[in-house]
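Can't paste images in this forum, so I'm doing it all in text. The chain is below; anyone willing to post the predicted structure tokens underneath?
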Amino acid sequence: MPVLYVVATPIGNLEDISLRALRILREVALIAAEDTRKTRRLLARHGISTPTTSYFEHNKLTKLNYIMGCLQQADVALVSDAGMPGVADPGYELINAACQREIKVVPVPGPSAIITALAVSGLPGDRFTYLGFLPRKTRARQQALEALAREPGTLVILEAPHRLRETLADSLLILGDRELAVCRELTKVHEEIFRGTISQALNHFTGPRGEFTLVIAGMKAKQKPAGTAEVGQRLREMYRSCMTAREAVALLAEETGLSRKELYRTWLKFNETVTTANNSGGNTERR
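Text version of the structure:
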């Protein structure tokens, strides 16, 4: 009976492919590829002439029946541009359809940006949460981070260069200044692994370029704001970012276990400070 092979491909360096993956790509009748141009470069590098067909985000439903029809006759390999298909890449629908029709699905494991970044981050890898790409809109992105602010396991996030600084800024606001590793262009010529704190990463990546994987430390007990000054500073950061009183107080109460009433009183002090500055013609922190 025909088989759907789910084949991992290099995340950068074309030499990072297994002998088994090369054999499978030679033997199957068809390769369903996220980008046939990139896949053909990989195939040409290794002298493979197997036919390819495109299977990407915007045609994955219209192409599904065609590929499933091919699977009725012969083996098919599914590949993405980099890494493992179905993990932050197209492939889920095809894999699910094959499972539903009781077609054998065989994994051919290999490179993964997620695991690679986690392994070299210097942060605990025994428990982690993979968030993929965070939402593009600021509030939705902050809410996604808020949902995992108390997670003790390491967080792994993928990000595009034009949104890296926004994600770092929101992470600093919501999670605090945690340790992290920012992995750029993994296994490629310009590979860079930055280790430090979120604020240090913001200072370092002023004009980000390339593909990024962020590995952020989970919450530790000592990271919970405990002193009055630290709590006040966190509220001040939230105030400056234009969070509402309800949002800020609810988030910090959840983080620290402190009384919402007391946190709200502290929040009101910021309003009083701004009002006084306005009346005196001084600068304000928030307009």
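The CA atoms of residues 106 and 193 lie 33 Å apart. Strands lie at 3-7, 30-33, 52-54, 76-79, 104-108, 128-133, 154-159, 179-184, 192-197, 212-216.
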